[in-house]
Amino acid sequence: MPQVTWKGVITFGLVSVPVQLYAATEEHSGPALHQVHAKDGSRIRLKRFCEAEEKEVPYSEIAKGYESPDGRQVVLDDEDLAELPLPSKKVVDVLAFVPAESIDPLMFSKAYYVATADKAPAKPYVLLRDALRESGQIAVTKVTMRTRESLAVLRVHEDTLVLQTCLWPDEVRSAQGMAPDEKVTVRPQELKMARSLMDTLSEDFDLSALHDEYQLALQEVIDAKLAGVEAPHLEEQAEGGEAEVIDLMAVLRSSVKAAKGEHGRGAKGGRAAAGSGADAEATDAGASTGDDAAKRTRKAATGRSGAAAKKTAKAPTPTKKAAAKKSAARKAS
Predict the structure, then answer these.
(1) Which of 62, 137, 152, 323 is 20 to 30 Å from the Cα of 33, by its Cα?
(2) pLDDT tens digits for 52-80?
(3) Spatial distance between the Cα atoms of 117 and 120, rounded to a whole number of angstroms
(4) Closest listed residue to residue 144, CA positions, set 64, 81, 62, 66
(5) Are 56 and 48 in contact (CB under 8 A)?
(6) Are residues 192 and 161 in the same domain?
(7) What is the H or E stretch that residue 67 is in?
(8) How many domains does the chain have?
(9) Taking Cα atoms as reference points, which of 20, 23, 22 lies closest to residue 9?
(10) pLDDT tens-digit profile of 194-225?
């Protein structure tokens, strides 16, 4: 059983639910790395050093401090922080019930399982859980953990209430200027092909089959160094050049075919099938792109003509004899 993170009461109206919270997630720790001196591998130690007394101090003598703009120092110890006048330290008061989609996932932070407190009646817990489930809504609230008050929501996961802490609205940065500002027209057939690819990649997807490959790769490097052999390295990839004008329909069709091949014959066979049919797909798609393909062709031809003109301009001037031969040839034709 994980350690209890918080104990208190959830209230909505006059209904109170004594609860305790448990962390619902844990991040991969991977191999434990620490700081060392690159020259000889010796450990680097960070010491808590007092500037006034010029000596190291134990952790038990460490407090928090704030320096005002005029240079005055305020010291805050654990007792000061524990006595902050915040109702949300022990009570999670439901402020509103809202549709789940009204909270942008960008705001979600850490999740906690909500369990009934020891010897607390189960009915208030079940009442809140079932009401949220049937309504399809989530409860907006606030909670204080350690030294931070957070916006939070209560929602249902399987048969358990989950309290999900959230960022405050002013902690989410604006997305303005991130999307392309140029006007782009997506044709219906391109959108249809993209949806077809999405449907293919959505079939029989198992999220549990995904693994943290970074931790595995890091462990491989560590094991290789311990064994005194060359550590594995990522193969060098060709650097991408300037952005090219591509036939989007051809790429989409090839992608759909590759995805279907992987689903039908396994990943290895699917990739092989996609590779063998890519040229044919590109040819078919190129024939169906109509005016857009023609425009791209004219643009490419113009670019090649311009490049040829520049090359000709840089070439040495032909002799009079060579020019006379070319003139005679044109007259003969």
Answers:
(1) 62
(2) 999 999 999 999 999 999 999 999 988 88
(3) 5
(4) 81
(5) yes
(6) no
(7) strand 64-67
(8) 2
(9) 20
(10) 998 888 888 777 888 888 888 888 999 999 98
Give the Cα separation of 175 and 173 in Å (integer): 6
SS3 content of the chain, % helix, strand, coil (to 5): 45, 20, 35
Residue 122 DSSP code = S
Instruction: For residues 18 and 255, give the distance between their C-alpha atoms in angstroms, rounded to a whole number.
Output: 53
Do both 10 and 154 map to the same domain?
yes
- The CA distance from 112 to 7, in Å, is 12
pTM over 0.70: no
Q: Please, is 106 exposed, middle or buried when counting C-beta atoms within 10 Å of its C-beta (0-12, 13-18, 19+)?
A: exposed
The proportion of the chain whose per-residue pLDDT surpasses 90, expressed as a percent, equals 45
Q: Which domain holds residue 277?
A: 187-202+246-301
Domain CATH for 158: 2.40.290.10
Please indicate, yes or no, if residue 214 is contained in any of the structural domains.
Answer: no
